[in-house]
Amino acid sequence: MAGTGVFEEIIEGDVFKYYTDGEWKKSASGKSVAIINPTTRTTQYKVQACTQEEVNKVIESSKIAQKQWAKTPLWKRAELLHKAAAILKEHKAPIADCLVKEIAKPAKDSVTEVVRSGDLISYCAEEGVRILGEGKFLVSDSFPGNERTKYCLTSKIPLGVVLAIPPFNYPVNLAVSKIGPALIAGNSLVLKPPTQGAVACLHMVQCFHLAGFPTGLISCVTGKGSEIGDFLTMHPGVNCISFTGGDTGIAISKKAGMVPLQMELGGKDACIVLEDADLDLVAANIIKGGFSYSGQRCTAVKVVLVMESVADALVEKVNAKVAKLKVGPPEEDCDITPVVSESSANFIEGLAKDAKTKGATFCQEYKREGNLIWPLLLDNVRPDMRIAWEEPFGPIVPVIRISSVEEGIHHCNASNFGLQGCVFTKDINKAILISDAMETGTVQINSAPARGPDHFPFQGLKDSGIGSQGITNSINMMTKIKSTVFNLPTPSYTMG
């Protein structure tokens, strides 16, 4: 249960505290932000509404703590990360319970997210020791016109204060995917969790606290984005921003100034199905890719582009699987659970109504109860429908019938998104050609789009993001190169 046992100190009354200077504190604002349970549509939790002055103090503490942390040996940083990972996994049940209640994630998937997050932290510790423990040694005479009079030593050094902003759909996993790399690289970390998912994040931060990280190194501020969002992202004390979310990221990138940015901003992941594809495999992956966690994933299958000659057979197979999906509350491990908010449900409904008006074939009857929307496959979708281009973030998958592979590639590349895509074919040559032609950060061959395993590179093109994630890439992104050059009075050659 949330806020009990080792988590007792993170709550007072019915409001969860924020974390700074190694302590759990109440905001001087005296205000709180309500977190609505998507299933019951009533207030489940409350968190502090931090002020801008409190944000200032948090970042000042982070700057001081970072200077000391940068002097901490790599092996010691890794040791603390391994300890945090173990504590996180030990307390997976109460954190998973928060995910069930805050974001309506199925119970089993919620536990999986917490365990996966612990594994990510441990892997990050090991990878960081390897890649940060190495530098480069360069000599000047490799460049034309130079004698060997200069020795250059390079190493990776921390950026300073990293601001991490994860999304609601994987609030714990996508928080630690930023926290782990930042800390192993010698940075301090300020976490601004999403409102939905904030309490799970606060529990996760307590695991880092229990691991014994230095005071001030990790902070977690909660509150309204309208009050502290821009203030955080434009703060002169922030040296790096790692953000996962939607259009807000584009606004952040325009305001952030001269700081490194790592951004993943969603996608319209296309699934291109050729005539020789294994249709049973395709159908299974459309179900997994399009409907798991009710489609609320950046890497969900969001449009199926299938060759006309096999479209009827594929739609029939997918429909048969949709009929078997269990719909209901997350506590019962249903396949389809309520979407995160009423506004999200309204947006999804708007896409469905637009498609209905313009003549799409509804393979199932559209059904909604509160935030719970039944899974829906839309056939005969055309490019003039909103669902052909917009990201629903819900259990609705459009099917567009194509007459050529080129038509499918064109539709994929015409999107302003470019996160991932997938191709189903038994012809490896075609798979490679289509993959190369698709303007996306990743292309999956004969499998649905996916983020992970967590050490794989993960990046988007166009409006889908800036930079690349994945453990190694994140560590490198949260460091910069420092060079020290030794100048010799005369050329010196080894064994010369």
Question: Total number of β-strand segments?
Answer: 28
Shape: globular
Classification by helices and strands: alpha/beta
Determine the strand fraction and express it as a percent band: 15-25%
CA-atom Rg in angstroms: 24 Å
What would the average pLDDT be, to the nearest integer? 97
> Between the first and last Cα atoms, what is the distance in angstroms?
70 Å
The number of distinct helices, counting runs of at least 4 residues, comes to 14
Low-confidence stretches: none
Widest sheet: strand order?
Answer: 16-19-20-15-14-22-23
Mind describing the biggest β-sheet?
7 strands, mixed
Kindly state the percentage of residues in helix. Answer: 25-40%
Tell me what the structure shows.
By secondary structure, the protein is α/β, with parallel strands linked by helices. 38% of the residues lie in helices and 22% in strands. It has 14 helices and 28 strands. A 7-stranded mixed beta sheet has the order 16-19-20-15-14-22-23, sandwiched between helices. A 6-stranded mixed beta sheet has the order 11-10-9-12-13-26. Strands 1-2-6-5 form a 4-stranded mixed beta sheet, covered by helices on one side. β22 (420-424), α13 and β23 form a beta-alpha-beta unit. α4 (107-132) packs parallel to α5 and α9 packs across α10. The relative contact order is 0.13.
Describe the SSE topology.
Elements: E1 11-12, E2 15-16, E3 18-20, E4 23-25, E5 32-36, E6 43-48, H1 52-69, H2 74-90, H3 92-103, H4 107-132, E7 136-139, E8 150-158, E9 161-165, H5 173-184, E10 188-191, H6 198-211, E11 218-220, H7 225-233, E12 240-244, H8 248-255, E13 261-264, E14 270-273, H9 279-291, E15 303-307, H10 308-322, H11 342-357, E16 361-362, E17 368-369, E18 372-373, E19 376-379, E20 396-402, H12 405-414, E21 417-418, E22 420-424, H13 428-437, E23 442-445, E24 458-459, E25 461-462, E26 465-466, E27 468-469, H14 471-477, E28 479-487
Parallel strand pairs: 2-6, 9-10, 9-12, 10-11, 12-13, 14-15, 14-22, 15-20, 19-20, 22-23
Antiparallel strand pairs: 1-2, 3-4, 5-6, 7-8, 8-28, 13-26, 16-19, 17-18, 21-25, 24-27
